[in-house]
User: Fold this.
Amino acid sequence: MTQKPSILVARAVFPGVIEKLSQHFVVDANQDDVLFTPDQLKQRLQGKQGVFTTGSERIDAGVLAVCPSLKICANMAVGYNNFDLDAMTAAGVLATNAPDVLTETTADFGFALMMATARRIAESEHFLRAGLWNRWRYDMFTGTEVHGSTLGIVGMGRIGQGIAKRGALGFGMKVIYHNRSQLDAATEAQCHATYVGKEELLRTADHVVLVVPYSAASHHTIGAPELALMKSTATLTNVARGGIVDDAALAKALREGQIAAAGLDVFEGEPSVHPDLLTVPNVVLTPHIASATVGTRRAMANLAADNLIGFLVSCKPVTPLNPQVLP
Ligand code: DGY
Assistant:
């Protein structure tokens, strides 16, 4: 009888997914959800052919150099900036991510966070819970209009397109977008979206939503100069990745009223949050939960598992990122 391949599941995950993986692999599961240091990760990967990662485990040349048995890293996330894809390809290690299954859920959340930001939902709830509400006032927590306003989306991939459709079709918003490349005319028509330059988007949008993947090129896409271009009544929402926004510059812009408000689901250096963001009132802060519905998280975990099974059992991964390493 041939020995089952060994894999590491680097973070806690649905027990049913561990059971499914156990049918094919010898599974080293981390159901206590210990956060491994880089050295602990390298140690736990010894003798493993596959690893199930969640986006918090960095896989780079240093890891690959000391884990020669590793053949596949399956991320339970659409984003994969925790992978050094070039190093993985050079080492012949397959990388997979979890696209599509979270698109609509993440678009729902992006839209919800933008609305909560525009309509000051978190700030007003804190006020109420603090027992400060003693009368109705004409100007209490007056926010920014959403319906009929201009929505500016930076990064028009699948999630950006989902947010565009929600804005245009549900809220009668004028949708403008900026992307590395302009979408084809049919997709633009489906999204009711018009391509503009980044500067024009920042100057004219009432609500800027960031859905661009993180890379060295997108680091600090929004910093002090970009914030200075935005309307003082505008909001900024980030459901992409920490590091796309210069959080220190944003906290300053919020404090000084350079923009009206921000909604952030992701942070530079998360789970740490820039201390200045914790003290400004006009920001809605959520702990990287844009894809967090039970159904979607289950689908993401199953897709990562299916990638491990597909590749290690029959050499057919579902969503490979570097298919050039496949035999
Ligand atoms: C993703 O899938 O990239 C989300 O940010 C969850 O990590």
